[in-house]
């Protein structure tokens, strides 16, 4: 696709009468003869085994017929790999919201190619991504993992990612089908969504991915759906999983369960599930073969599922003698990993404000930079949960800024407190084992308390993985030395059965046994520690004798169904440190003495993670106070917001320059340096709405009531609700300034010859600023005046254009026939005069024209 145009949408059939089938007709699922012949060679036991994972990250192999295992891996922001080896690293991608913020399908193609390259490097056949659930509420824990609050933007970006990866022979597993938009009670709640809303909003990205990208796999959600006719867990919802996805859309791929989401044998089998993950145990591992033999499930249906598994295996090259798919399989090495990621995250950054045209900054004018803020010391580059990878590299922000500003003096100051949980205990320097060695004694115990194995460690991640099957508990013992005067906190965070004793005090005890549920709800990732506060004395001469306390924690050895066994004990220690007031004073003094202050505020893994939703949109800790204080000390201040999901910015009107910088992955520090100094334009546009006040948010939470999440807003998701309610956000959907200015000089609509009811909207665009720049031309549709139940306006298409200073160009945006359709027990296109408007955001629309749609 060349800049200034959009890729033509697939041809769609013309409406017939009042009804319109505004998507490609589903292709009948054809059985490959070779696949059918291979299936016929399998025994019943082998066929059943193919429908159950062989382990955490692989399917079952049948070597005698030339079928190897298919390997899968998380996740949405990089390819983690299939090993639990702590030494295995991956390229850390920007969070999916950052990609959507580019509104650039060419960059999405590049990232799809990068997914394929990383998958091959890690021996992965299918990547469990992208996540195309919508950002229905800003407090959603996995908000950062989704693309957008809009189904059209989500679908367009995802189609390019999936298509580019699969063209290179790597499958993508689109998730989570469907209406899985909350983390609270995420394995049990029921989403109550009417059929129209499902069709027009939440199913729409999945439909695009089936028709336009031929996605090879779809993951069913933990949660359930009540569409007004059928209420069932997602994996058992036959009208959606089989009726819509497979039969109506013609999806020929594999429906995979979310991990340990399968709740029944016959219900999930009949519903449309093809592959239970993981295995080999679990509901299907324990009961599917017996159900087939007992006639409780149909063997012909079993064969159909087996053929889907074999087709996926053939596509990724896992069957000897059968040619894999992917016309560009050999091009996986043609990827500049670091360069692609660095350019992507720089382009994704959104200029929320730049009143004095501060960006880009002339590096020669800046000799002293004060980097201020908790996220300046520890940038938050990836969210928690299945999106997390072990980055293959880590760059320090101060080094990147120093390089960007040609050796300027750069100082770093926290300035504020943003974390609630204490940091990790320093085992090597503070701890002594019972035998007098540095570190912690770790003992694996059986049910009688006998020691099965023991070792002393000086490095501890908080996890003991692959615990032996006969382990009942893990005990950790050490003496902690506290040698700074003041208040210390020492403690342990864990899950399940435990006994924690610190300083002779029993801080917590429980006999509650846990299993896979602590993985599914992510409570195991960030357990809240119990701590003992210890005051160490101040000596008259400023030196206190060290204080020692004993730590003795016995925690459960967890043996979860479907997952590797583990024990969890987060050992934590908060030192007396510097008070918040002292941190603030230090940062303000540094800012006042600098040529430039860059304040980096944001969230962290305590706030944005799979497994739990946020309880507030405020920046954590004292960061708002820090921004105002630094701005008062140095008017040449740039504020960088390092967050994935929306946060409140109460100082937005006061700060002259504010940059939204996302969770940027491993290349984030250098990309930020590129943006500040003009190497790359921050040309991102918001893929969601930024609230000014928490009380204005149309969907303030997604907390189930009696197990049900009600989608009362219907089709009015995201910015559509803001418009309908007449509320003013801090920044609207699609907003972003870049570093030049633009004029929209004209518009015309041209009918598409081979697609009835489709139009090419031709927008005359001019770069009126002093620099070359990239503009995202956004086109929105508005219904006929009488259509009170339709959204006020909705995104109809977009294109990215790059123009030199003073250049004027026509930019074409395709508006497909599906733009006009609505669901009334079937797709219909209400006739009438629709308005198409183009501009810079959903609220900043510069030109428009009308088109008449007939049926």
Question: How would you portray this structure in words?
Answer:
It is a single chain. The protein is of the alpha/beta class and 855 residues long. It is 23% helix and 24% strand. The protein has 20 helices and 36 strands. Strands 12, 13, 14, 15, 16, 18, 19, 21 and 22 form a nine-stranded antiparallel beta sheet that branches. Strand 24, helix 18 (623-633) and strand 25 (637-642) form a beta-alpha-beta unit. Helix 5 (151-167) packs parallel to helix 7 (204-213) and helix 17 packs parallel to helix 18 (623-633). The longest helix has 18 residues, at 299-316. The two termini are 31 Å apart.
Task: Offer a quick outline of the entry.
With 855 residues, this protein is α/β, with parallel strands linked by helices. It has 20 helices and 36 strands.
List keywords for this structure.
single chain; 855 residues; alpha/beta; 9-stranded antiparallel sheet; 6-stranded mixed sheet; disordered N terminus
Measured by DSSP, the beta-strand proportion falls in: 15-25%
Which bin fits the share of residues in helices?
A: 10-25%
Counting DSSP H or I runs of 4 or more residues, the number of helices is 20
Radius of gyration: 28 Å
N-end to C-end Cα span: 31 Å
Taking pLDDT < 50 over at least 5 consecutive residues as the criterion, the unreliable ranges are 1-30
So what's the overall shape? globular
| Structural class label | alpha/beta
Number of strands: 36
How does the major sheet shape up?
A: 9 strands, antiparallel
The residue-averaged pLDDT reads 93
